[in-house]
RNA sequence: GCGGGCGUGGCGGAACUGGCAGACGCGCGGGCCUUAGGAGCCCGUUCCGGAAGGAGUGAGGGUUCGAGUCCCUCCGCCCGCACCA
């Protein structure tokens, strides 16, 4: 292993054994092969096909490090992609040297629209391009020296994988949510409870009195995966329906940016709303960033409040409010234009204006609802409703600021306490009764004398304040000063008098789970002649995607709202129509011709990594317990899950919410021991780069731009410098290949880790990379003679200063590695190496230690130097150096001495000197005395080990 | 508008619980080596000043012996949500 070809540097006087890019590459390729040949990064399992219990026992504590599941793009990697991967690799390698059994691998989330769209363009089957892309990406990642266990790499498109995706779908399909026990249970248990009468049927009849069809209806209505005919987001431009989460705020698809229309359609839904509270509450068990936790919280959008019924000529109108305490101030009502009661409520006098307003509202896309300056619009229906607490008749309006999709699609308007209602009331001259006495500070802030005359108020008052005018015969809030108490008392009153109930509303909707595409997991579902879905038995899985040339979905004019989705699988009647025996003899069935959304495969991939080749179950329970079981030794409420999950913030809501949901269902059904899939989440930043646009605003190749006298020129024409995420679209991508060519993979790894903290986005500058290359050259030169290739280390022990520097470095580097602060770890290693550079010769002890510490960061050159230093095997499982505490404390300490907060002198005293001694030494110092001018100090502060401050 | 995050040299960034601001790297300046250097090595590099010294972490105020760090007001940037009742 140790003989190398000499570095074939450009024809010049470069020393033959210098750590050049050529030599670096030779070392890297050689060690990558060696690692593969020796299975260096394989992590043993306690059970199942990859079981090696002895090896598990021989290693220390387990650690599961995970990167977010990448989509294998055909475009190839740029240097921005692997930032997180390098981070997890360094961490994994570090932890292996700490003796831990580290599970670290990477698979591919390869179903989905891009592959299908590419296939449609090229006419090549998506399976072919997908496999090519995966091969390319594996090769590119290997070249970086990532220490993945290759045996555990998977692809969602592999039938051996999606067989289990389908199996999990069936688990969900065959489950219902028991609201009393707050967990999913098998449908069979629901049937048993209905049969025995423990649980009543929805209409109260006896189960035995229901016919087969009625029973199926009762059951199907409870399933966690269910077929529903409900409003969904139909996107003609994509030819498929998409989930709420995939629609942007302006009503377009997040992929492709096509218009999306609300349409009633028969689609698969996932009852994620049943888990809303647990998805919310369990966020507290997770070690995730505040930003992501907040985003998840907002997305779930839990609002406690009340539903209140207002009597009207059209029967009771139910509204949802988070402020039932303000009911006395409800002076009008507003319904969404689409509200079903609008027609009944509208009087003849207002029929035309209402019809007109509804038509305009319907024609407005969500985009248009936004761009006006939020000027409130609306029209009265002519009817009134009864305010249940005051008995007053209040007018009912319709307005498009009330959305049909949230709450009940109707609100009670309390203009004095809600800004939107306030604006609406002002606009249409509706009464604004005051029901709270805002605090004096609020009036002061608006330059007003305190008054209950709301004509003087510039805006609504929202918050705690004593109630006024808030009493009837049986409810009196006057004088109560807290919203919480007001809400509670009103809720009690509403329930006692039959006017409403305390309720909780969520923004989270059930998850639309079917797509009319080809390149996804087929549903393991067939329909009988009544159109009822049946799950296929286990032995018929996987339902493989049928071979076809016409994998292209039918897409439509993006604005053709009235088109209908047409799944590619639907056209394959030979595949879709089947005869099966599902237990009651052979019958004709029709397969479900939808496919699952791309999120399906990434909802459970981390579990498959644990036991990727197990064909008996999706993961052996023993393996799941070992790798992902709750760490109650760390924390009594530890939820279990991946120890470290690294990825970008872009998956804050979609993937992380869906995966948590599936995991909780599997937990409820007893398939996994962990409550949560990802115990700790770390969001890495992005690599940004300069981008340049020409006079048309079109991006030009950043690599071809020249800077001259503060101007930027492309092809001799001036261009404008901009700023953005590195990528193909901004034409500012830098390929890792260029970096290998110039410096090698170790330098690239080191630079990416050194340029800043892992969670920060930072600009790429290729010119900066050379700094890390120089460092590695200096390191190499401290160990290997550039002219002869001979070792230059000496066996004499290091001098005291060097040994102390070494141990201090070990101490800090270990701390920083543990905390993922690789940038500061690298800085300390450079400092130590710079220190060694100044020595006459490198003591072997220091060389060994430095190489070990650099192993996680620059594994190839570290392995190479380790061998050259006379060791055998790989550095992978060598123990990371341990600092000797004896060398961390110095005999003497230098204290800066401040006079009135400014450093005026320095003293050196024994490390164990007591404060009085330090003080005396400080006052005795010439410079300090000069600065104080001989004045006696008023006070002297001694911070042990830190500094002295003399106050005069 | 609401929520989250962030403002430190020419640049990327260091600075543990308040305790020597600017570690480390780039760039830049000087030197060495060289026919040459867009290679490599050494020294220097926050700003003003020749120096002594002074100023300095977006702006202003406060707490403290001491503030980049804590508190208040303001300015600017980034991200998320967006008429959510």
What report would you give on this structure?
- The chain is 32% helix and 17% strand.
- The relative contact order is 0.12.
- Among the domains are: 167-297 and 510-597, no CATH class; 303-505, Valyl/Leucyl/Isoleucyl-tRNA synthetase, editing domain (Isoleucyl-tRNA Synthetase, domain 2, Alpha-Beta Complex); 890-951, Ubiquitin-like (UB roll) (Roll).
- The protein is α+β, with helices and mostly antiparallel strands and 952 residues long.
- The protein binds one RNA strand of 85 nucleotides through helix 10, strand 9, strand 13, helix 14 and strand 28.
**Largest sheet, strands/sense/barrel:** 4 strands, parallel
Strand order of the largest sheet: 2-1-20-21
Helical percentage: 25-40%
Proportion of residues in β-strands? 15-25%
Rg, please? 34 Å
Enumerate the spans where pLDDT stays under 50 for 5 or more consecutive residues. 1-11
* Structure annotation, total helices: 29
Number of extended strands: 34
SSE-based structural type: alpha+beta
Distance between the termini: 68 Å
From the spread of the alpha carbons, the general shape counts as: globular
Mean pLDDT: 89
Throw out a few tags for this protein.
4-stranded parallel β-sheet, 952 residues, RNA-binding, Ubiquitin-like (UB roll), alpha+beta, Isoleucyl-tRNA Synthetase, domain 2, 29 helices, 4-stranded antiparallel β-sheet, globular, disordered N terminus
Quick overview of this protein structure:
The chain is an alpha+beta fold and 952 residues long. Helix content is 32%, strand content 17%. The protein has a four-stranded parallel sheet, with helices on both faces. The chain has a four-stranded antiparallel sheet with strand order 6-5-7-15.
């Amino acid at each position: 292993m140790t003989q190398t070809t000499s570095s074939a540097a450009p024809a010049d006087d470069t020393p033959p054994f210098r750590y050049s890019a050529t030599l670096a590459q030779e070392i890297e390729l050689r060690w990558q092969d060696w690692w593969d040949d020796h299975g260096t990064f394989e992590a043993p399992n306690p059970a199942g096909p990859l079981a090696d219990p002895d090896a598990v026992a021989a290693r220390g504590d387990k650690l599961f490090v995970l990167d977010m599941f990448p989509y294998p793009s055909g475009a190839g990697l740029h240097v921005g992609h692997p930032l997180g991967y390098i981070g997890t690799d360094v961490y994994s390698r570090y932890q292996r040297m700490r003796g831990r059994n580290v599970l670290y691998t990477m698979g591919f989330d390869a179903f989905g629209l891009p592959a299908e769209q590419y296939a449609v363009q090229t006419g090549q089957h998506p399976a072919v391009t997908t496999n090519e892309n995966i091969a390319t990406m594996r090769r590119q990642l290997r070249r970086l020296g990532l220490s993945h266990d290759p045996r555990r790499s998977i692809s969602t498109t592999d039938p051996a994988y999606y067989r289990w995706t389908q199996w999990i779908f069936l688990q969900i399909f065959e489950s219902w949510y028991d609201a009393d026990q707050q967990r999913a249970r098998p449908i069979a248990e629901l049937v048993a409870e209905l049969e025995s009468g423990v649980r009543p049927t929805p209409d109260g009849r006896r189960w035995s009195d229901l016919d087969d069809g009625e029973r199926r209806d009762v059951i199907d209505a409870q399933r966690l995966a269910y077929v529903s005919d409900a409003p969904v987001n139909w996107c003609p431009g994509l030819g498929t329906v998409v989930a709420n989460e995939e629609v942007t705020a302006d009503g377009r698809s997040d992929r492709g940016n096509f218009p999306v229309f609300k349409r009633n359609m028969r689609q698969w839904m996932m009852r994620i709303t049943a888990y809303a509270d647990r998805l919310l509450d369990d966020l507290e068990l997770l070690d995730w960033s505040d930003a992501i936790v907040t985003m998840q919280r907002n997305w779930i959008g839990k609002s406690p409040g009340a539903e209140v019924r207002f009597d009207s000529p059209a029967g009771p109108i139910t509204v949802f409010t988070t402020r039932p305490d303000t009911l006395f101030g409800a002076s009008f009502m507003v319904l969404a234009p689409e509200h079903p009661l609008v027609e009944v409520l509208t009087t003849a006098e207002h029929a035309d204006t209402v019809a007109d307003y509804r038509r305009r509202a319907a024609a407005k896309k969500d985009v248009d609802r936004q761009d006006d300056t939020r000027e409130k619009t609306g029209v009265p229906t002519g009817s009134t409703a009864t305010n249940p607490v005051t008995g007053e008749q209040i007018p009912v309006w319709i307005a498009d600021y009330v959305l049909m999709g949230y709450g009940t699609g109707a609100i009670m308007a309390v203009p004095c306490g809600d800004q939107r209602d306030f604006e609406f009331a002002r606009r249409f001259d509706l009464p604004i009764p005051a029901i709270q006495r805002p605090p004096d500070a609020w009036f002061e802030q608006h330059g007003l004398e305190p008054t209950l005359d709301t004509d003087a108020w510039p805006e609504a008052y929202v918050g705690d304040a004593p109630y006024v005018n808030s009493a009837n015969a049986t409810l009196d809030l006057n004088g109560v000063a807290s919203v919480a108490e007001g809400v509670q008392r009103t809720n009690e009153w509403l329930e006692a008098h039959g006017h409403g109930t305390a309720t909780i509303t969520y923004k989270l909707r059930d998850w639309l789970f079917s797509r009319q595409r080809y390149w996804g997991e087929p549903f393991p579902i067939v329909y009988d002649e009544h159109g009822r879905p049946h799950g296929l038995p286990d032995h018929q899985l996987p339902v493989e995607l049928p071979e076809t040339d016409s994998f292209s979905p039918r897409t439509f004019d993006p604005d053709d709202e009235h088109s209908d989705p047409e799944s590619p699988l639907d056209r394959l009647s030979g595949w879709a129509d089947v005869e099966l025996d599902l237990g009651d003899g052979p019958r004709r069935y029709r397969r479900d011709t939808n496919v699952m959304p791309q999120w399906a495969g990434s909802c459970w991939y981390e579990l498959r990594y644990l036991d990727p080749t197990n064909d008996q179950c999706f993961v052996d329970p023993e393996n799941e317990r070992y790798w992902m079981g709750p760490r109650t030794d760390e924390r009594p409420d530890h939820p279990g899950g991946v120890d470290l999950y690294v990825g970008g913030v872009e998956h804050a809501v979609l993937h992380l919410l869906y995966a948590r949901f599936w995991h909780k269902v599997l937990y409820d059904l007893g398939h996994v021991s962990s409550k949560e899939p990802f115990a700790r989440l770390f969001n890495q930043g992005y690599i940004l780069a300069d981008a340049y646009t020409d006079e048309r605003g079109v991006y030009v190749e950043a690599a071809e731009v020249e800077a001259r006298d503060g101007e930027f020129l492309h092809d001799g024409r001036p261009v404008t410098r901009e700023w953005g995420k590195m990528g193909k679209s901004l034409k500012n991508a830098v390929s890792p290949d260029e970096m290998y060519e110039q410096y090698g993979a170790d330098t690239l790894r080191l630079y990416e880790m050194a340029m800043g903290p892992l969670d920060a986005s930072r600009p790429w500058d290729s010119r900066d990379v050379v700094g890390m290359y120089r460092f590695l050259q200096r390191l190499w030169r401290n160990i290997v003679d550039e002219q002869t290739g001979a070792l230059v280390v000496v066996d004499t022990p290091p001098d005291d200063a060097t040994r102390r520097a070494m141990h201090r470095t070990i101490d800090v580097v270990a701390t920083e590695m543990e905390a993922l602060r690789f940038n500061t770890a690298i800085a300390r290693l450079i400092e130590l190496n710079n220190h060694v550079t100044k020595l006459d010769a490198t003591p072997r002890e220091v060389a060994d230690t430095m190489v070990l510490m650099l192993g996680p960061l620059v594994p190839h050159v570290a392995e190479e130097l380790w061998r050259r230093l006379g060791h055998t095997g790989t550095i992978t499982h060598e123990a990371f150096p341990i600092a000797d505490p004896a060398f961390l404390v110095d005999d003497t300490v230098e204290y800066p001495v401040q006079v009135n907060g400014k450093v005026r002198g320095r003293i050196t005293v024994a490390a164990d000197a007591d404060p009085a001694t330090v003080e005396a030494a400080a006052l005795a110092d010439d410079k300090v005395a000069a600065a104080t001018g001989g004045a006696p100090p008023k006070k002297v502060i001694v911070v042990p080990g830190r500094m002295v401050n003399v106050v005069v």
